Amino acid sequence: MTNQLDDYDVKILQLLQDNGRLTNQELSEIIGLSPSQCSRRRITLENNKLILGYHARLSPKALHQEVIAIIEVKLLNHETVKTHNFLNFINNEASIIDVFKTTGESDYLIKCLVSDLDMLNDLINRIFTTQLISHIKTSVVLERVKEHGSIFDY
Fold first, then answer.
1. What pTM was computed for the model?
2. Domains of the chain (ranges plus CATH)?
3. Which ranges carry the HTH asnC-type domain (predicted)?
């Protein structure tokens, strides 16, 4: 599907990336297609997994979770069972909001959101107690400079 995107599809993706609440009527007025054509195209983009979802971006302050940390983790080894156990652990931790499997010195990059440094310390201790980790490095975010940037340039 990605090689079949035309200018209208790209414009729909750009507009929805900036404002996922746009209606098909609003899209049609902006890009010059009928609302039904916009609806069909949006559904096709969703079905082809080019639109992964619609979300409200919440402020950490609204959640009383104002400390963001990035944790780099290196596993002891990559045995299937141990890797599966680690992934189960991170999927069950509510304060872990993003996890990326990476190349380089770390195996995983974890973004977490906690209320304070004591809660961050508790999370790090829980990660260590899995006994699956050989190395961990934590950085506390001081300022959110750019987040959720646009994929498309205008």
1. 0.73
2. 2-47 (1.10.10.10), 67-140 (3.30.70.920)
3. 5-71
